[in-house]
Structure formats: C-alpha cells, structure tokens
Amino acid sequence: MLIKRRKGWEIRESEVTPESVFMTRRSIVAGGLSIAGAAAFGIAPAFAAADPTADLYPAKRNDAFKLDREVTPEKISGDYNNYYEFSTSKSLASLAANLKTRPWSVAIDGLVEKPMTIAIDDLIRKMPLEERLYRHRCVEAWSMAVPWTGFPLSKLVALAKPTSGAKYVVMQTFMDRAQAPGQKQFWYPWPYTDGLTMEEANNDLAFLVTGVYGKPLGNQYGAPIRLAVPWKYGFKSVKAITKVTFAAERPKTFWEGLQASEYGFWANVNPEVPHPRWSQADERFLTTGERRPTLLFNGYGDYVADLYKDLKNERLWA
C-alpha cells in the first residue's frame, strides 16, 4: 500500500479558504460600505480606506506554499496583532487605522549601485504579486495561518543592485509619534529596525507583503508593506517599512537593543530551545485555541536549514 506522508507545511485543498470568499469581501469594501458596516462583516476599519493598488487584488495563489492547518479567519487575525508602535494590547486595529499610508515611499540605500526612493504604489506595480499561504509563529508561543499577498524579497534585492560588500539587508519602519502613540514610550529603541543576511533575503520564502485575504494590507498587519519570514519568530517581520539599507555589518535590531539576553538576531523557530521565561515546545493556534507541537523552523526546514549548517557558534534560535 502506498502511503503518502504530508510534509509539515502542507494542507488539504479542501481546507483552504476559497478565493471567491476573498473576492466577495473585497467587493463589499470597494462598493463603499461604511466603516461601521465593514465592522459588522468582521472587516477591520483599515480595510475601508481606498487603496490606489486595489485593482491588483486578489492575486493568483502560488500553490508551492501550502499549510498543515486551516487559514485563520480574518476576524481573528485582524484583531490579534503585535504592533508596539500603537499599543501593547493585541486589539489595536482602531489605533493603527489612523496611520496615513499614502503618500508613502521606501528609501533604498547603503551599499547599492544607486540609492533611490520609490513611491509605494510604483514599487508594488513593478513587482509580480502572488498570494502565499504562510504559517506565522510568534515568540509568545501563539500561531496563525495567513494568506499573504506580495512579492519575493529577492525581487527588491535585484532592483536595488547591491554591491559585493553588502552582507545584510536592514529594514526600518516609520517614525511618527503624532500618529503612533506607542512611539512616545522613550524606553523603546525607535524606530523599529531588523534585518536579514543577504542569503536569507534571497531565500525563496522571504516575502514582502502588500496584501492579505485577497485585498490590500490592513494597517494593523503593517500596511502598506511588511516583511514575512515564516521560519523565524514574528518579531523579525518588520511592519510599515520605509527604509531598506544594504550593509556590511550586522545591524543591532530593535529587540536586541531592548533585551539582548532574550531576543537575538537570528530568531529561528526551534521547539527545543525555550525562551528564558517560557517553553517553545508547543504553540497555541488562534483559530481553535488548541495546543500543538512546535516544528523546527516552523515547518520550513526543507527551504532554509542549509542557510545555517556552517554557523556553529551562533545563537540561532531566540
């Protein structure tokens, strides 16, 4: 008897939220539904704002990226977000909705052939958008599964044309205390900064996100553009990116600057390496509340394990 064993990231097609559902929800917003009406449908208020790139969504799904679980409903993932620029509470969508995401530009500088600043809508329209189903694992030991839309980070790397001296890609979020009340907390090392090695940035999984659930990205998720690196803990996925710098030296990241003993540069998911204050052996899935075993690299080892095989003396896991 032939027994097919699914890999850790696979999901049955029957478990995936139908594309028609995404399209219908987008039509509700595009048709001019009020913010109050949108809330009644479980749509975060940030989605009600017009977006100049809305015609690009929903994008075609890339079926190479699959899951082992159902997609987390938008009502749940849209109201359970870490975004310290706005609040330490998870229910911050109403605060994040105040962030003006147009006009918005992304500066690309550092060790590149020609530094540039590009308007977000021009950048999005230059790129081949696709939808990917990704697991998301927070260092706080909760998890969800999200249909992100965006483009590979490697495409931005190619656009930037880094020089041979570039070893790291450093990403930085916006800085605006008037719009983001959390940035008034002086003990945090604002603006939020994180980074990847060039090898990580060019990996197939590294993804710049501009949409979710078949429409433009909601503010609470990190609009207008954020990173998704699903083999790492969620704090590596920078939100609301305004600057991408190619550098020779490893950056000091936001959480390293705040608490280096607990949060390192690499932050790869590993069930056998606990956080100093809690276990990482299992995780709580937001949709059902059930606890399930954590997978090494969040189930994406086939894609990324080789990136770290020669790093013997690095703290790879937290």
Task: Describe the protein.
There is one protein chain. With 318 residues, this protein is α+β, with helices and mostly antiparallel strands. It starts with 18 loop residues before the first helix and ends in a 14-residue tail after the last helix. The strands form two sheets. Strands 3, 4, 7, 8, 9, 11 and 12 form a seven-stranded mixed β-sheet that branches. It has nine helices and twelve strands. It has one domain (13-307): Sulfite Oxidase, Chain A, domain 2, CATH 3.90.420.10. It is globular.
Distance between the termini: 42 Å
Global shape: globular
Task: Please report the number of helical segments.
Answer: 9
What's the CATH C level?
A: Alpha Beta
User: Can you count the beta strands?
Assistant: 12
The percentage of residues in β strands lies in: 15-25%
Number of spatially distinct domains: 1
In short:
The chain has helices spanning 19-30, 35-40, 74-77, 93-96, 120-126, 153-160, 198-201, 254-259, 301-304; strands spanning 105-110, 116-119, 130-137, 142-152, 168-173, 193-197, 207-212, 215-216, 226-228, 241-247, 282-285, 291-293. It has one domain (13-307): Sulfite Oxidase, Chain A, domain 2.
Strand and helix layout:
Elements lengths: L18 H12 L4 H6 L33 H4 L15 H4 L8 E6 L5 E4 H7 L3 E8 L4 E11 H8 L7 E6 L19 E5 H4 L5 E6 L2 E2 L9 E3 L12 E7 L6 H6 L22 E4 L5 E3 L7 H4 L14
Parallel strand pairs: 1-10, 4-11
Antiparallel strand pairs: 1-2, 3-4, 4-7, 5-6, 5-10, 7-8, 7-9, 11-12
